[in-house]
Amino acid sequence: MRIDAGQQLRIDQRMKLAPRMIQSMEILQMPQAALEERIDQELTNNPTLELREAGTDDESLRAEREQAERDNQEGERELVVADGDDKKSADDFERLSNISEEYGDSWEANTGESYDSYRRPVRNDGERDRKIDAMANTAARSESMFDQLVAQWRMVETTPREAELGQYIIGFLDADGYLRTDMQTLLQQAPDHATIAELEAVLEKLQQNLEPPGLGARNLRECLLLQIDARERSDRDADLYVERLLVEEYLKDIEANRLPRIAKATNLTLDEVKQGILGLRQFQPHPGRLLSDDAPRTITPDAAIEYDEDEDRYVATLTSGHTPPLSISNTYARLARDNGVDKRTRDFVNTNLRNARWLIDALQQRNMTLLRVINVVLEAQRDYFDHGPQALKPLPMTTVADQLGIHVATVSRAVHEKYLQTPRGILPLRMFFSGGTETESGDSMSWSAVQAKLQEVIDAEDKSEPLNDDQLVDELKKRGIDIARRTVAKYRKQLNIPPARQRREF
């Protein structure tokens, strides 16, 4: 094997994007919540950026901007970085490759030259500090399940040894509250040479004392039995014989919906079995989730869709949400023109003025692109808004890109995590872009519309004799939709619809 070192010349063409274009693409891809946070961050870090005062008309804003551009032509020039330029600008180019469909934290980085070494002048004009207000209005971090259970365990009367082992076991409970680690594995890592008997005794004590009941169970059967025990301890008049019998012996039959078999094996009537299953629904199969603070995600629509009766069409209006209107500070614009100011200060101000203008331009470009894309969607999916999900048509992003004369990647960024407030509820914009199939009549139907039709067929079936997948294929074919059985099975699973045997009602 021989290793040589040498030099080689290569000529190739590469396209590099200026920081301004990178920032524009990042702003376009941001969902509303991230955009608002980015603007708040820029307002905090960039002293030349300020909120537009109420009552400022567009004409005065335009005159102000034109004057600022004339006075700062040098700062408005596009930055193009060649090989050997400073590393900070090169890092901006590198960020482009990290922009993906799953939006990350790239928005936290500043575009252009850094000004972290400077500090924004402290204002003392009586205005409230936006950053302090935001911190004051932020909800306190909730306690984890582990912390809550440890606090409960400390209130239980235990020996020091039990307290130590109990906290050790709590650390192995998963998000559902289950102990899915076997005792042998626990024993290998347990403190002070514990025994399996000790661990099992402490686990039993945990199961009897932690709230909600069912925590520390090793499977669903044990979890439900622990809750049945707790209910009987708290309510001595509770009659849970049937529920206990079903959990101890017939969980698999319940899962497979074999109710007649359960009735025959237990000498119970079918109604008694059904009543027992109904009673089991009052228990929590995942008790750990009751201790987690999984607040629902807040969605801020990017646009509102309304029907215009006069023009017989749907109209889109961008919703600003909490996005504040921005403008350039006249004070800093004049400071940049003052030759009496030292060069370091003027460079700092010019850099921030340029970043502020880029941000405002990027916001305007974002709004324009998003509105154009939404208008194309409204025109293409008019039937959906009139008739519902079954009328949704296939709409590839390439079609929208060709119609608007933009790149398909721009369309993808424009629809990423954007939501519309429509007469049919708040919907993700990406929902309107999908492939599809043709019906026997020659009409196009999206895959989402096929799923809606499948849901309609299953909702209308005879529950005592539900349709299997082959029969569902036949029913869809009667409605002009010819798809394979495996496709029906896949869509049924995506809709969380169980197979025919489990849908049967007795």
UniProtKB/TrEMBL annotation:
Stretches assigned to the RNA polymerase sigma factor 54 core-binding domain: 135-332
Biased composition regions of type Basic and acidic residues, renumbered to the chain: 50-91
Origin: domain of life: Bacteria
Residue numbers spanned by region Disordered: 43-91, 104-124
One Pfam assignment: Sigma54_AID
UniProt entry keywords in alphabetical sequence: DNA-binding, DNA-directed RNA polymerase, Nucleotidyltransferase, Sigma factor, Transcription, Transcription regulation, Transferase
Domain RNA polymerase sigma factor 54 DNA-binding: 348-504
NCBIfam families in alphabetical order: rpoN_sigma
Family note: Belongs to the sigma-54 factor family.
Protein name listed in UniProt: RNA polymerase factor sigma-54
Taxonomic lineage of the native organism: Bacteria, Pseudomonadati, Planctomycetota, Phycisphaerae, Phycisphaerales
